[in-house]
Structure formats: C-alpha cells, structure tokens
Amino acid sequence: DGGITQSPKYLFRKEGQNVTLSCEQNLNHDAMYWYRQDPGQGLRLIYYSQIVNDFQKGDIAEGYSVSREKKESFPLTVTSAQKNPTAFYLCASKSLAQAYEQYFGPGTRLTVT
Amino acid sequence: GQSLEQPSEVTAVEGAIVQINCTYQTSGFYGLSWYQQHDGGAPTFLSYNGLDGLEETGRFSSFLSRSDSYGYLLLQELQMKDSASYFCAVPSGNTPLVFGKGTRLSVIA
Fold this sequence. Notes:
The structure holds 2 protein chains of 2 kinds. By secondary structure, chain A is mainly β. Chain A is 0% helix and 51% strand. In chain A, strands 2, 4, 5, 6, 9, 10 and 11 form a 7-stranded mixed sheet that branches. Chain A has a 4-stranded antiparallel sheet with strand order 1-3-8-7, with no helix packed on it. In chain A, 38% of the residues are buried. By secondary structure, chain B is mainly beta. Chain B has strands spanning 3-5, 9-13, 18-25, 32-37, 44-49, 53-57, 60-65, 70-75, 84-92, 95-99, 103-108. The radius of gyration of chain B is 13 Å and the shape is globular. The termini of chain B are far apart. The interface between A and B is medium-sized, with 22 and 25 residues.
C-alpha cells in the first residue's frame, strides 16, 4: 500500500536535546511538507521541499532544520533553539500535478520536558 | 498573502444537516479544498472545488463561489463519527496548501 509513514508516534525528550522526526513516502510525490499543530492553531507550515536537495522555509522555520537527500525521505530536526517544541508534527506530500490534495502521515506527538 | 476564516466550533444533532463556512483572501486562486481530522489523527482529503458550484460526494457536499470568495462544506445525515475538525485549504499552484484554523464539529445525540 502506498502512503506516508512517520515514526515514532510518540516521542519524549529532555529540554536542550535535538531530536529528529522521520517521514517516508512511497507515493512517488515530488513535494513534501512539515506542519506543526497546536490546539486551536490549525496547521502551520515549518518547511517544504519540491525537489531533492532543495527546501524552503515555511511560516515557522526558526528552531527547525530539514534535509531532502532522497525523494522518499524528508526528516525534520527539532533543535534546542526551538523555544516551545512540544506539539503534534505532521508530514505531508503531494503530486505537483494535483496541487489541491495533500496526503498526510499519522503524525508524531513530541513532548519536551 | 493568503488567509482563510472559518468558525472555530459548531455543534449539531445526529441525523441533522450542518454547514461549515469558509471565506478566503488570496493572491491567486486555484480552488478550495476541505480536509477532515479526527482527534489525534491525520487530516484526510474530503473534497475540492476548482469551479463555482456544488460538488457532492455521498453525505458530504462542498460549494464554492469565487465572486464571493466563499465556500462551505455541507454534511448531511450527521453521524457521531462525523465529530472531527474540518479545515478549508487553498492550493496555490505548486506551493503548499494554506489551511484555515479549522472548525471543530461536535455531533450530539
């Protein structure tokens, strides 16, 4: 089955540690995205990539970093510089030929204490 | 820039009909999408309106009026499982979707 996988589902870290969230897709989509979701805030875009080895900052990129070395993979690193990292993180992808439909992974709930 | 406005919460009775509105302001418009998200889950695509008018998919319908910069999602024969958050979103060519803040629908018996 084609889809997007994110791991782990739940992640706990101590303040001051960097943490990397995994996102893999086998849909052959060119574009991939990372969103952050907080209660009542909707979906806020962190970073996106439309082609391998290229990515752009979204609305809330500070304290985050990404890489896109393979078409299938778009990991997100939450650095210690992110002031409030506890949130639900969603990865998504879409075909550039069908711009209106994004496919989402199941999400990673990160808790930093 | 782009912005979308939708009500934060809506409550409706099981078996009834509910309409969730979305107004938008965009620089360049390609259509309006709708997504459903259950608590703790991922958003899933519901519908897309690229042209004015009504699109129907089973119990769900979506409407778009470009001249009014307005759309809505209509849910009929509400079921308890329809309790979720619903997001309108605007695609902008090859750039990421811009999402509204979501409407939390509570279906009550």
